[in-house]
Write a structure and sequence with these properties.
- With 284 residues, the chain is mainly beta.
- The protein has a single domain, classed as Porin (Beta Barrel).
- The chain has 2 helices and 13 strands; from the N terminus they run αββββββββββαβββ.
- A 12-stranded antiparallel β-barrel has the order 1-2-3-4-5-6-7-9-10-11-12-13.
- The longest helix has 20 residues.
- The chain starts with a helix and ends with a strand.
């Protein structure tokens, strides 16, 4: 596995590619996500193509020395990088393809960074935004990760109130660990809920601050230890967001505070006191 400097190089190279392409692009509008976790009702027009770069940062604690617990602990963030290509198949159907990379913190500092898998999804909506009292859309995804297979579905709801836009994604996922394996480690299924809700205020076409809530976990936590059960339980986050739109290029980001526990995590805890997500998008 590569170390964290390689992770930084990958992120910087991806960002440089986005900015280089933007520097030669003209001024048509993209289809932005104003909230980092919640999908809007709007979809890409037929034939349109867009790329998104997702970066998640989750500060965690690791042992300063894996062979000597008495040496204390270190702060070391976990990372998830996703590159997504979206394509407008028709006026109301949008296809998406993801590549997922993760950087898992390890004892002594640094990361185990590597390719985690692929995601495939389709998103659609019932009508044009504003035609119904509440805009309704649907999202279906297949995740083919290195150690799991997952099926995900979302009911996406949206409502405009003047300059305010309210969004919620009612999101559930069936996850099967090691689906091709047998024995104790294979074919373990878990039902995960991952709802989101938020609001943005469109100060101008280019600037929209907001607030967003999201949660993730199992309603019936699993695991052999108390820490494992706590890691798989539903964890709740809420925080401020910001959206900037430059036409072909847009950026949304949020800092989310862990409502379950803002204390310093223990080594082995899956969630730290805050979660940061950045989504950079560009029309191709």
């Amino acid at each position: 596995m590569e170390s964290s400097p390689s992770l930084v190089r990958v992120a910087l190279s991806s960002l440089a590619g986005f900015l280089a392409a933007f520097s030669v692009a003209s001024g048509a509008a993209a289809m932005p996500r104003q909230l980092p976790f919640s999908y809007p009702n709007e979809t890409l027009a037929e034939g349109e193509l867009e790329a998104e770069l997702h970066t998640d940062v989750n500060p965690q604690r690791v042992l300063a020395d894996g062979d000597n617990p008495a040496a204390g602990n270190l702060w070391e963030p976990a990372y998830k990088l996703q590159t997504e290509i979206e394509y407008g198949l028709t006026r109301r159907f949008e296809l998406g393809f993801y590549q997922v990379f993760t950087g898992e913190p390890k004892a002594g500092g640094g990361h185990e960074f590597g390719f985690d898998g692929l995601k495939w999804r389709v998103r659609t909506r019932l009508a044009e935004p504003g035609e119904l009292p509440v805009d309704v859309g649907f999202y279906f995804e297949l995740e083919t990760m290195h150690d799991e297979l997952a099926f995900e579905a979302k009911l996406n709801l949206q409502r405009r109130l003047g300059r305010f836009k309210l969004m919620t994604n009612l999101w559930a996922e069936e996850q099967i660990a090691r689906p091709l394996d047998t024995g104790a480690q294979g074919r373990k299924a878990a039902f995960i809920v991952n709802p989101t809700a938020g609001a943005v205020y469109e100060v101008s076409p280019r600037f929209a601050p907001g607030v967003e809530y999201w949660a993730r976990g199992q309603l019936a936590p699993s695991g052999d230890t108390e820490q494992e059960r706590n890691n798989t339980a539903v964890h709740h986050f809420v925080g401020p967001t910001v959206h900037l739109n430059f036409g072909k290029l847009w950026w949304s980001a949020g800092v989310y505070f862990h409502l379950n526990d803002m204390d310093t995590p223990r080594p082995g805890d899956s969630y730290g006191p805050v979660w940061v997500r950045s989504v950079l998008g560009m029309e191709l």
